[in-house]
Design brief:
By secondary structure, this protein is α/β, with parallel strands linked by helices. It has 11 helices and 12 strands. The strands form 2 sheets. Strands 1, 2, 3, 4, 5, 8, 9, 10, 11 and 12 form a 10-stranded mixed β-sheet that branches. Strands 6-7 form a two-stranded antiparallel ribbon. The longest helix has 18 residues, at 140-157. It is an enzyme of class 4 (lyase).
Amino acid sequence: MSFPIHRPRRLRRSPALREMVRETTLAPSDFIYPLFVVEGRDIRRPIGSMPGVFNLSLEHAVAEAKQAKALGVPAVLLFGIPDHKDAQGSQAYAREGIVQRAVREIKNAIPDMLVIVDVCLCEYTDHGHCGVIEGGHVANDATLPLLAQMAVTCAQAGADVIAPSDMMDGRVAAIRSALDEVKLTEVPILSYAAKYASGFYGPFREAAQSTPQFGDRRTHQMDPGNVREALKEVDLDLEEGADMIMVKPALSYLDVIHRVRERVDVPVVAYNVSAEYSMVKAAAQNGWVDGDRLMLEILTSIKRAGSDLIITYHSLEAAKLLG
C-alpha cells in the first residue's frame, strides 16, 4: 500500500508531533566542554580563529566549568598551555604543572563536575610534536613513559578520566599499567582511538599553541581515506584497556562513528573539532546561515551517527538552547 493510505506528513504537521516522534534528541548531558588553561591571573584571552573560545587562567577556567555544570553539561576536557616548553614536554607531567593545578582547582570548586584530561605532549614541547624527537622523527617507544607519567600525575591531581590523544602505538597499555601500578585502577581511559590527520584542527593549534615547528603529524595520526584501519585502532585500544573510544574529527567522519558504534559495546565519543566550530561561526557572522540552527543540526547528526557523547566548543550555547 502507498499513497493515499500512507501519508508521512501526518506526523510532521505540528511541533508537538514532530517532537514526540523524533528519533534522535540532544540534551546538555550529551556534551563535554573543552577548556584551554594558561598560566597567570585574570586571563581571558580571545582565540581569533574560534569566536567565543578563550585561553583561560585558572580562576576563569573554574568559572567556565561552573557555568557548564549549571547548564547541565557534565564534564570538561582540559588542555594545559604552560609558560615554559622544552623538548621533553616536562611540564606535561610536572606535579605542579598547569593542567594538574587546573584539575585540582576545578574539582575543589565543583566536586561533581567530571574532569577529563587530554594526555599528549604537543602543547608542552618546544617543537610542537606529540612525543619525543629522535633523528628528526617522533620516537614512539621513548614517548610512552612520558605519557604514562602525565596520566598518573593528572589522575593523582583528581582527574576523573584520562584521554590520550597522541596516537602513539601502545600508549593505552602503558597508561593503564602505570595507573594500576599506583593503585589508580578505577580511573577510566577515553582513548582517541580513531584520530585522523585532519585539516580541521587548524584553529585548535592557535588555541593550544601547538603547531609543529617542522613536518606534520601524518606519521602517527590516521589517513583520512581509511576506515578499516580505524576499526583496527579501536580493537587494539580496547584490548589494551580503553574504557571509552573516540572518533576525531566528527563532521567529515560520521561514517566512521557509525562503523565504530556498530562494532563496539563501550561508550563512543566524537570530537566536534575546532574548524567544524569555526566554520559555523564564520558563516553565521557573515549572515549566510542561521548559526544556532546549523549548530544543533550538526550536533544531532553526530549523535544520530552513533556517538554517545560529543566534545564540542558549542557546549554552553547549545545547552542554553536545549534548556
